[in-house]
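R.M. (postdoc): so does anyone remember the format we settled on? I'll just put the C-alpha cells first.
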C-alpha cells in the first residue's frame, strides 16, 4: 500500500510531505489524506506530535511508548528549522551532558512544544544573517532514520554557543563540550564571526581560540581579524555577571574567574 511505503521512509513527517507523496502517486485529494491519517492513527502506526506533524510507529511497536528521535522532531518543527546551539553539540556527539530542551533556529514563529519528555524551543535567525541572506551559512544536511535534517556545523556551533551561552547551560558544560572537539575549520569560524558583526562575540571566540591555540593549531592570522573587531570599551564575558571578573586586555573582556581558573576542575 502507498501509505506503508511512505511510513517506511518517514520516521517523522508533516502533512505537506504526505500530500506531496500522495500527489506524485495520483492521490492528491485532501479527503484521501485525512482518511489515511485517521485510519493509521486508529491502527497505532502513527502518533500525532502536534497539528500537522506526526511520527511513525515501527511495525509491532506500542504507540503509547514508542520513542521518537527528538532531533527529527526539532528538524520538522518548521520548514526551515535548523538544529542548533547545545542541541547541535548533542547531535554531533560533542556535548558534555544531555539536555531535554532542544533548540532550533527558524525565521518562522513557532510555539514551544513538549513531547515525550523533551521541550522544543525556536530561536530566531540572527538578524545579521537574515539581513545578508546568509541564514544557512554553516548549516549541514544530515540523515537520521531516513529523514534529512539541517544542523549547524561544529564551526558555526562554536560561535553560536559563545554568542548565546544562555542556550547551552553552565560554563563548565560549554567549555567541556567545546574542548571535546578536536578540529575546527578555523577559516569557517572566522568567516561566520565576521558575518555576525558582533564585537563581544568576536572577542569571546578570540579568547577561546587563544586559550586553545596549541590544541586547535590557531595562528595569529586567525586571531587578527577577531582582534580588529573586538569591542573598544571593556565588555562583560557573561551579560549580567559583574562580580568576580578579571579584565583580559587582549580581548577587552571582563571574564569570570570561574572560566579563567577553570574552577570546575578543582578537587574538593
Amino acid at each position: 500500500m502507498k501509505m506503508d511505503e511512505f511510513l517506511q521512509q518517514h520516521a517523522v513527517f508533516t502533512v505537506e510531505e504526505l500530500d506531496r507523496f500522495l500527489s506524485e502517486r495520483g492521490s492528491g485529494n485532501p479527503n484521501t489524506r485525512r482518511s489515511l491519517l485517521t485510519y493509521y492513527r486508529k491502527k497505532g502506526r502513527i502518533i500525532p506530535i502536534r497539528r500537522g506533524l506526526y511520527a511513525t510507529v515501527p511495525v509491532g511497536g506500542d504507540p503509547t511508548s514508542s520513542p521518537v528521535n527528538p532531533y527529527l522532531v526539532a528538524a520538522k518543527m518548521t520548514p526551515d528549522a535548523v538544529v542548533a546551539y547545545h542541541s547541535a553539540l548533542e547531535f554531533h556527539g560533542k556535548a558534555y551532558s544531555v539536555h531535554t530542551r532542544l533548540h532550533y533556529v527558524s525565521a518562522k514563529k513557532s510555539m514551544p512544544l513538549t513531547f515525550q519528555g523533551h521541550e522544543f524551543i525556536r530561536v530566531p535567525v540572527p538578524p545579521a544573517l537574515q539581513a545578508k541572506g546568509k541564514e544557512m551559512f554553516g548549516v549541514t544536511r544530515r540523515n537520521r532514520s531516513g529523514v534529512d535534517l539541517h544542523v549547524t556545523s561544529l564551526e558555526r556551533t562554536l560561535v553560536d554557543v559563545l554568542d548565546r551561552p544562555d542556550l547551552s547551560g553552565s560554563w563548565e558544560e560549554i567549555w567541556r563540550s567545546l574542548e571535546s572537539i578536536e578540529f575546527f575549520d578555523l577559516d569557517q569560524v572566522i568567516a561566520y564571526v565576521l558575518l555576525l558583526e558582533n564585537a563581544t562575540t568576536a572577542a569571546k571566540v578570540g579568547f577561546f581560540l587563544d586559550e586553545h591555540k596549541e590544541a586547535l593549531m590557531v595562528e595569529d592570522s586567525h586571531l587578527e581579524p577577531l582582534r580588529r573587531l573586538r569591542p573598544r570599551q571593556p565588555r562583560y564575558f557573561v551579560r549580567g555577571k559583574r562580580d568576580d571578573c578579571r579584565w583580559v586586555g587582549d580581548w577587552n573582556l571582563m571574564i569570570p574567574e570561574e572560566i579563567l581558573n577553570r574552577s570546575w576542575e578543582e578537587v574538593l
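R.M.: ...and that's the designed sequence above, right after the C-alpha cells. Also worth knowing: The radius of gyration is 22 Å. Residues 2-56 form one domain.
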